[in-house]
Amino acid sequence: MGEVYRAKDTRLGRDVALKILSAHLLSDREGLLRFAQEARAASALNHPNIVTIYEIGQAAGVPYLAMELIAGKTLREILSDGPVPVRRLVDLAAQLTDGLARAHGVRIVHRDLKPENLMVSAEGFLKILDFGIAKLSDSGLASSEAPFQTATGITIGTPSYMSPEQAAGRTVDFRSDQFAAGLIFYELATGKRAFDRPTTVETLTAVIREEPEPLTALAPRLPVPVRWIIERCLSKDPDERYASTRDLARDLRQMQLNTDGLFGTESMKVATSAPGATSAASDEAEPARKPASVGRRAGRIVAAALGILAIAGAGAGFGYWLRHEVSDAPPPSWTGSLVMGGSTRVLAPRGSPDGRRIAFLTIVGGLAQVAVMDPSSGDWTVLTKRRDAGSVHRVEWSRDGSRHFFDRVTDVPRGVFSIPSLGGDERLILEGVQ
User: Fold this and answer.
1) Dihedrals φ, ψ of 228, to 5°?
2) Would you place residue 336 in the very low, low, confident or very high pLDDT band (cuts 50, 70, 90)?
3) What is d(CA 162, CA 49) in angstroms, rounded to the nearest whole number?
């Protein structure tokens, strides 16, 4: 709908990007309205991850926008090299959701998020562009309560990056942008689009009805918390996504602060589903080491031997104490593999219906809370956060594995609650029962 030129601001001596409305749209009322919409939406936003509008005007009857010139690449160009390293994925995702949270905070929905509309500067800063089909609150930017929706029955946007409700022409709100962001995160992780079909109609049908190929198959080394965030953004039901984009941005920023624990070495990359990808990713993540000298190897062997002796001595002492303390205890009648240990207390574990995850209770700040774990990787996270309604007593899965049901108890039963298995807000189901 527009043409963009590199231009010089002669008053301030700076290079800018000058966007003008395409000539064939100058007589088109809808094109003029959308151009004005972009100007109004983008100029209402002031955020480091959203392109800055310097000036809005008209010259020789042609509307224009003067905006910051970003020296860098579009996310589409970056994706042409395939999936990105996990650390970079989380960094880009955190920047994108920070900018979206700002837009959603002033009641603006972008509605056309895609890699072509995201620029990454040479310094690594992500910028959201092109608010041409953004939707503003009908009652103005100042309102924090007015809903921002598109008219029912109108489908607008890019098919491969639409939400199910957008593809079906239904009511759209900020959670539609969350779905589009999830599609972008999916593509960053796997190098392929979640819904890419031969025709537009097939693509829209897939967005509405089908599930994308599992991330566990396409990116098996993707950390579980990152996968959960992407899967939650890609929920078909908007109610299963984040109640606030600020919460989504906060989760990603928290992951950025804990990348060493979550993602390992800086060189870790997301593995693809190509044959041999797992071993190739392992080779890339583990740089070749120079052969150690004979003296260093001998020193390591001696240190290892001393360590083994120390562990054996400690084990013998502990075994003597244990036999003394539980000499009358019956032998165990079960076998299994240790998936969690140390100081973590695991209470009332429950397997998911598909057998792939475990929900359990663990003590956080003196209160039992609901946690969930993927036994294949050992990664786990605490889902419930409330401290004002007592401890969780028992947890169960819903039949389809999408939710947890649990009860909270103080000196009396407080009620039965539910929470999405990917995380979210607690919801009271029955009050005063256990």
Assistant:
1) -60, -40
2) low
3) 21
| Cβ 148 vs Cβ 173: under 8 Å | yes
What is the residue type of 370?
Answer: V
Is residue 87 within 8 Å of 260, Cβ to Cβ? no
CA 261 to chain centre: 17
Smallest Cα–Cα separation from 118: which of 109, 127, 108, 110?
127
Give pTM, 2 decimals: 0.57
Residue range 138-161, pLDDT digits in tens: 433 333 333 333 433 444 568 889
Kindly tell me the sign of the dihedral angle through the C-alpha atoms of 158, 161, 167, 173: negative
pLDDT band at residue 210 using 50, 70 and 90 as cut-offs:
very high
d(C-alpha 110, C-alpha 104), whole Å: 9
Residues labelled catalytic: 112
Rounded distance between C-alpha atoms, residue 322 and residue 415, angstroms = 41
